[in-house]
Write a structure and sequence with these properties.
mainly alpha
Length: 84
């Protein structure tokens, strides 16, 4: 999976994909502990895919302005306390 593939997806699709990847990661961990996992590099790929989806979700919030509003309030609050 590439980050470019995630750009066109909605937040609901990304959340569903994140849930599926976490389930896959859980199954892979069980297989690894039982000695049944043939390709151990799949764990690393799944972990990185989860990080990509989380990053896409976070960057999507920045576009809507949710995180931008929080950042400005923290900056103005810290300036007020320094001035006092």
């Amino acid at each position: 999976m590439k980050a470019e593939d995630l750009k066109g997806k909605s937040e609901d699709e990304l959340n569903k994909m994140l849930l599926d990847l976490r389930k896959a990661q859980l199954n892979q961990r069980f297989q690894k502990s039982g000695g049944q996992l043939a390709n151990t590099s799949e764990l690393r790929k799944t972990r990185r895919d989860i990080a990509r989806v989380k990053t896409a979700l976070t960057s999507g919030q920045a576009v809507t302005g949710k995180t931008a509003a929080k950042k400005t309030t923290k900056k103005t609050a810290s300036k007020k306390t320094k001035a006092a």
